[in-house]
Structures are given as structure tokens and as C-alpha cells.
Amino acid sequence: MKKLLLLTLLVPVLSTQARERDYATNAVATVNMSVVALKPQTPPSPTARAKAMVTSAMENSFSYNNLDEIEKAEKFIKDNNLQKEFKLDLEKNIPAMKNRALYESEWSFYKSFVYSKGVGLLDENEYLQMKNKLEEIQARRYKKNKNEAWAKADKAYIEKFVSQYKEQREKQIETSRQSCKEETDWSSAFSARKGQTDTSWCYAFGYADFLEATHGQSVSAADLVLSYRAKRIQDERESYNRTAALYNRRPLTEEDIIPVEYVYQGGDADQIFRKQSTISLCSEESLRSEARDEKGQPVAMGYIIDWIKELGSEYQASRLSKNELTKKLETFGYKQLFPFAKIDEALAALNPKNDLYIALAESTCKDKRIELPNQHQNWVMQGYTFTHSLNAALAKLNENLNQSPAMISVNDNFLYKENIWGKGLKTNHLILVTGRRWNEETKHCEFKIRNSQTTYANEEERLWYTDTELLRNTSEIYIKGR
Fold it and tell me: Model-level pTM?
């Protein structure tokens, strides 16, 4: 009995001692693990890293998007002077992987390219070119990969493309024919075409032509530019003042200078008189939008405006007298641009907010502005994704053409034989669509355009483009908004 009692009394003590030993052991283990974790890990050697990169690239070498991975492995080997250890990879494996990746990339790209063009929108030559290209890529893929399953899938895709083309093309021809059955040509609604030369004024030239066709008045594209500049200054002031009110800052007033580039900065035609019931503009006869040399060829308007602005700055800085400035302007023939301007009046209007070009424009337009009703105050440039909704865009374009010329915004490189903006660059460019006709030979509706940039591109002007050519490159159409 005494033994049992002694054992009962000792159990809690022994248990407590055991737990304390366990805690101590665990604590030591934890500390040891922390020490191990804190020890700096030995990084893999360059050879091991290169081997891992090559292995990963080989595992993914049938993927069209792993070309970057292959090139990184190749660069790592060369950067770390491992050419000797990886001689076989550099001479054989990596080039083979690159070829496979390139073929996969080309195949995947071309499949996307076919559908981005719209299968039903391809003409016969485009269809044959794409079909031949797909077959060529497929043959090269099979020659390299010897993969029967892939070859079968590729051939099935090409067969599907052929059947889709035949089916969709017939439907598209009929849709285009119906939309284009009534010929239209608004060319007689315009005066002589003017060129924007080196400026970014396509939006102003296009809108000026649009207003001339819809109102019968020849308005100045240059004055539209200055109207858009004034609106931008007003919008920026209002935007700043809304923020200033939130943070208790001094608001901008009419006296504050808000510099706005207007010669080489493009604009939005639909925003110039948005929500305004009337339009007040100078006529083209009062403020000319282009200058011509003695041979009648347009000259760089941007250069001329910069020169006129510089004259004004020289005069304001007292580096040029009034007589010297007047002589320079007369030698240039400033009346060609500003027929009714008075130099004294323009110089008196010079201030930090108005340069000499703007002052001369205001002088020549004084008491000669045209007031027009704004029939399109709620119209906007509406964006379209034409590869997926071409017929909707075609319907909207034709609806507009039934009433007036149509303003559209395009990626304009397709208009020129050579990319005048530089390789790979595109620019949004506003043009007018002025007519349509059906071409039974090509089975396309064709649209006539009026382009303010052609003269500066120094190319023979092309007037007619197929619906496919035009709408593939169109991003926006000027339509009635809400």
C-alpha cells in the first residue's frame, strides 16, 4: 500500500520532469534548425544553372512561346564562358529548339492572322496566299517534328479554313452587294482639295470638308485648329479647377497661361463644337489653311507657322523692330495666308497667351466670321472592331453616305506605297469617305476617299478602296450619338 502511494505521488513529478526534458530537447532542436536555416545556402554553380535552363527549354521546345527561354539559356552559357562544356547544345540542340519554336510561333501567328483579317472578307488572291502559306508551314512542321497527330490536326485546320472561306465569302459578297447597290458620290460638294503638309491637322481638314459638304460654306481648317486649341485650354482650366476646389488651391483664371501645342498635335474633330447649337468660323478665303510656292505646290505649313511665331517672339524681346518684322512678313507674302490682316492690329494683340500667328489669324478674321447651325452637335467618333463587326460598320458607313460624306479615322499606312511615318509605326488619321460603287469584277463594294495627307506623301493619289481594305484599317466612324 505504501509502495502504491509513493508511486502515485511520484508520477506527477516524473511527468513534469519528462515534459521539461522534452521542452528542452525541442528548444535545442528549434535553435539548431534556426541556425541551419540562417546558414547561407550554396548557390548552384553556373554549370548546374545552365544545365537546368537547357533542360527546361528542351522540355518546352514544342511550345510556340518559349523562344525567349531558349535564347536566355544560350546567352547564359556564353556570358559564363561555358561554351566548351555545352558545345553539343550550342551546335546542335539549341539551333534545333530555335527552329521548332520559330515554326510553332509562325503557325500560331498565322492562324491568328487569318482570323484577324476575317475569313469572309478575303478576296480570292488573299485566300490563296493564306492557304498556300498554311500548307507550307504545315509541311515544314511535319518535316522537322515527324508528329503524325500534329500533322493530322494541321490538315484538319486547313480544310476547315477552306470550307469556311467558301461559305462565308458567298454570304459576304451578297451582303456587300446589297449595301452598295446605290452609287453615291459627294465630290461635287467640295472646293479644291487642300493638304495638311507637315502639320497634324487631318482632323481640321476633314471636318472643314465635312462642314462644306453639309452647309455649303468653305470654312478655314486653320480656324478649326485654333477653335480646338481654345476648347482644350478651357477644358484643362476647368479640369484643374475641379481638383483645386477639392484641395483648397487657387483656381486658374482667364489670365493664367495654359500652353497648348496646336501645330504638330492632332485633335478630335467631334469635340470642337460638341454640344454647341451654333458654329462660328472664319472662311477659308479669310484665313488660308495652306501656303503654296511659285509653282503652285503646297509648302510645309508647320515650318511657316513656327517662323511666324519666332518673328513675334523676336519683336516682343525687342530684338526685331516693327519695320524689320513687317518687311520680313511682306517678303514672305503673308497676305497669302492672312488676306485681311493688319500688322499693327496683330502686334497690339501680342501677349504671352497669343503668338503672332494667332494674332494675325484673329486680325484677318475680324468681322468676317460665318455663323452656322450645328446639325451634328451630338455626333461622336464611335469605335468599331471591324474584324468582328464589319457588316455593322459597313451598314453605318453606308447610312452616313446616304446623307453626307462620312468622317472616319484610320490607321493610315495602308494608304501609301511606303510607310511615311517610319517602319512599324501607325498613326490615327482622319479622312472623308465621299462615294461608293459596286465592282462586279472584284465582288467588292468600293469607297472613294478624300485624304488631306496625300500631297505631302508625294504619291500619285488613289481614290477608290475596297470595303475590305478600308474597313480593316478603320478604327472610328463619325455617327450620331445620344
Answer: 0.71
Q: Which residue has the cell 465582288?
A: 443
Rounded CA-CA distance 444/406 in Å is 19
Residue range 66-89, pLDDT digits in tens: 667 788 888 888 888 888 888 888
Q: What is the pLDDT of residues 381-411, one digit of tens each?
A: 887 654 446 677 888 888 889 999 999 988 8
Q: Which residue has the higher pLDDT, 153 or 60?
A: 153
CA angle 327, 331, 335 (to 5 degrees): 95
Distances (CA, A) of 274 to 27, 227, 263, 375, 401: 76, 12, 21, 11, 21
Is the predicted pLDDT of residue 108 greater than 80, yes or no?
A: no
